[in-house]
Specification:
Strand 12 and strand 13 form a beta hairpin. This protein has no helices and 21 strands. It is globular and about 45 Å long. The protein is mostly beta strands. It binds calcium ion (CA) (4 copies).
């Protein structure tokens, strides 16, 4: 990985051929610094229990106003680990919290989805500690939740995300922890399959979901805290993934998020790097064009690979890092 001084954006193209299923990703390291003074009101603070770790948004009481769900950790008092709900009061403020106890589990990440198809939002938390697990709390539609149900997942979980991996229209979960990425397929009734573990880098801390290679199948992105990189696992359908494909990040990436930062219609990645005090941004590049015509012509979207690539060997091949950005192909 090339090292860039903060504030001096640079890029490395890491590309796959247009016909390959691998995402083509261009790497840029940036740091913040521009002022957004006046963009937000003065901060308001609401009680959220002991040791809030993570926050997610959903309309839990179906009043059209987004509410908050947080995870709490208080290791000195295990009965204060859990999930807190703050309901939107309609004036930009929040009431609560209402607390759901997860015992001695140490919840980190929390995600929102309707897991049982009743149009009421539910919660999933990624729990570390001795009882590492995913906790599922089904929503009652009025801002309250059922008692948590636990799915054991070894590996000291840190993060959970909601996706649909096997095309059955039932929401699934991906959870990142020290053991890799656990995929739990939803049964549509709020229960989930036992986890299938996919390898990532060292100490995965955060997982995101998006379709990076635009093949209609959601892919997994993972920030690996100890290997200082991002793992991309490409969905192949059926709840399975190939990879991991590794991309360098800053030092100790702790969180990953997906967004189309260059507004080209392709999802990009950002990691928060706890030790290098910066953000790594990985821009998904357009597929490399093999055409020798002038001007070169590329497909608007990468064509679907005709056959699923077999599972990679234990040491998955890395995508080739190119020394400089390639000229963009002009779209036909
Ligand atoms: Ca539900
Ligand atoms: Ca599913
Ligand atoms: Ca995909
Ligand atoms: Ca983009």
């Amino acid at each position: 990985m090339a090292i860039f001084a903060a504030g001096y954006p640079a890029s490395i193209a890491i590309a796959c051929d247009a016909g390959e299923p691998g995402a083509a990703i261009e790497e840029t390291v940036t740091a913040g610094g521009s002022s957004l003074a006046g963009a937000f009101s003065a901060p308001a603070y609401y009680g959220a229990g002991d040791g809030p770790q993570s926050v997610a948004v959903g309309d839990f009481n179906a009043d059209g106003k987004p509410d908050l769900a947080l995870t709490n950790q208080f290791t000195l008092a295990p009965n204060r680990n859990g999930v807190s709900i703050l309901l939107n009061n309609g004036a930009g403020g929040f009431s609560g919290p209402t607390f759901y106890n997860l015992g001695s589990r140490l919840p980190e990440g929390v995600a929102v989805g309707d897991f049982n198809g009743d149009n009421k939002l539910d919660l999933a938390s990624a729990n570390g500690g001795a009882l590492d697990s995913v906790a599922v709390l089904l929503g009652n539609g009025d801002g309250t939740f059922s008692a948590p149900v636990y799915i054991p997942v070894s590996g000291n979980l840190y993060s959970v995300a909601v996706g649909e991996f096997n095309g059955d229209s039932k929401l699934d979960l991906a959870a990142a922890g020290d053991g890799g990425v656990a995929v739990l397929l939803g049964n549509g009734d709020g229960t989930f399959s036992a986890p299938t573990i996919f390898g990532a880098g060292s100490a995965p801390r955060s997982v995101g979901i998006d379709d990076l290679n635009v093949d209609g199948k959601p892919d997994l992105t993972v920030a690996n805290f100890l290997s200082d990189d991002v793992s991309v696992l490409l969905g192949v359908g059926g709840g399975s993934f190939t990879g991991p494909y590794s991309f360098n990040a800053g030092s100790r990436p702790n969180s990953i998020a997906v967004g189309d930062f260059n507004v080209d219609g392709r999802p990009d990645l950002a990691t928060a790097n706890a030790n290098s005090n910066d953000v790594t941004v990985l821009l998904t590049a357009a597929p490399r064009c093999r055409s020798r015509s002038h001007p070169p012509r590329c497909p608007v979207a990468p064509p679907a690979h005709p056959t699923a690539r077999p599972s990679p060997p234990a040491a998955a091949p890395r995508l080739t890092a190119l020394p400089s950005p390639r000229a963009r192909c002009r779209r036909a």
